[in-house]
Structure formats: structure tokens, C-alpha cells
């Protein structure tokens, strides 16, 4: 059986997407009305193992691709060197915010943290879009900050969960290190009319090869899930499976 969630498999996926006639683009390009007939917005939520993001960014650059990278403010820092390198490759950089969680539900403090972190990122590169981090093991939905405030006031053009119509755009995410992760997906999910059910990356590749995919798609690829080195691949598999047990319990308790 083919090994999934490797850089090699990701390269195969991109090849199948392009062979099917799709243009791969960052979120910001879609918002600025670059909408060819068949597009895929590729978004990377960079939550840990930032070196993987750099490796994927290089893979994409070598294939002539530009995508979006949303960086999380983790352990009190952003990875400045990696962010600058990825930005210089032509990829979009965005903020992967979890400020309501960091502020433990205090909206005023959450906004202060948001503004501070956005300002830090903008010292190194242009930031025009943001994207929510799910914070699955906390009680706060980080998107709720925008019920009180307006991100457009901070020169933010868009946020995928608010500015895309997922009844027109198929949303695929590798949350939980699986493509059919609804049972372990706490917040990284959308309301949609689409009913695709992919188990493996090869399933998605075959769908592109069979020309059965819709014309507009957003794909969320977490860099930490994709590894070629066996020990890193196995570590991620074990860690994510353990984490999925906890998320499954959370999903069950909220239904």
C-alpha cells in the first residue's frame, strides 16, 4: 500500500491537480478577482514543525506554484527566518489567529493580542488575510472575536471562514491527518452542499484524474502532517492518532 502524507505524495497531488487543468493560487489572489474557470486555493495552517512549511514552500516554488501560509504565534514567538524565506519565494503570508483563546475569552485583550501579532508579522512581509486556528481543546471559538470587532478595520481583506461561499467552493482539509476527519474535527469545518468522502490522498488524486471534482476548491494542508523521513512520519502518525481520540470525545460530547 502506498504511504500517505509524504512530500512525495503531496508532489503527486499537485501534479494531478495541474494535469486536470486547475490553477493553484493563494487566497489573496482569489479575493483580488483572479478567478479562472478551474481553481484551487491552497492554504497551509502552520501550527508547529515550521521547517516542514519551508520544505513544502520550496517544493511549490520549484513547481512554479504560489500558495498561502498562515503562521501561528506559538510559545511567544513567530519563526521570523522561515516566514521571511517563504515570503521571498512569492507565497502569501497570513496570520493564523487564536487570540480569543490566548486571552481566555476576554475580547478586549484578544483584540490587543491580535493587533500586536499582526504588527509583528507586518514588520517582515505584507499581511492581507487571516485564518482562524481551531484550538480544539479549549472552550473558545476564535472566530467569535469578529462578532464584536471588524477585521477589515485592520487592513485585512479576507478570512476564509467568513469570505468564501462553501456551497460553491469545495473545502478539503487534512485535519486529524485524514481527509475524512469529520468525527475528529472540532472547528475546522464548514457548512456545504458537497458530499465528497475521501479517505486517502490517492482517492483525491483519482478524483482529479477522473474529472469528478468541482471547479472551485479550497484545500487546507497542514505542513506538520507531511514527512518523508520515517521517524518523523511515524511520530506524527502516533501523535495525531492519540490527539484524535481526545477530539472524538469532544465532538461526541457536543452533539
Rg for CA atoms = 17 Å
Helix-strand category: alpha/beta
Q: Which spans of ≥5 residues are poorly predicted at pLDDT below 50?
A: none
What is the H/E string? HEHEHEHEHHEHEHEH
| Outline | globular
Number of helices: 9
Count of all domains: 1
**CATH level 1 class label:** Alpha Beta
Strand coverage percent: 5-15%
CATH topology: TIM Barrel
Largest sheet: 7 strands, parallel
Number of strands: 7
Q: Based on the coordinates given, report the CATH architecture.
A: Alpha-Beta Barrel
Helix content: 25-40%
Q: Quick check: average pLDDT?
A: 90
Organism: candidate division TA06 bacterium DG_78
Protein name: NodB homology domain-containing protein
Task: Please describe what this structure looks like.
The chain is α/β, with parallel strands linked by helices and 255 residues long. The chain has helices at 7-19, 27-31, 50-62, 80-88, 99-102, 107-122, 160-163, 201-209, 230-253; strands spanning 23-25, 39-46, 68-71, 92-97, 130-132, 170-173, 216-220. It has a single domain (7-250), classed as Alpha-Beta Barrel (TIM Barrel), CATH 3.20.20.370. It has nine helices and seven strands. Strands 1, 2, 3, 4, 5, 6 and 7 form a seven-stranded parallel beta sheet that branches. Helix 1 packs parallel to helix 8 and helix 3 packs parallel to helix 4.
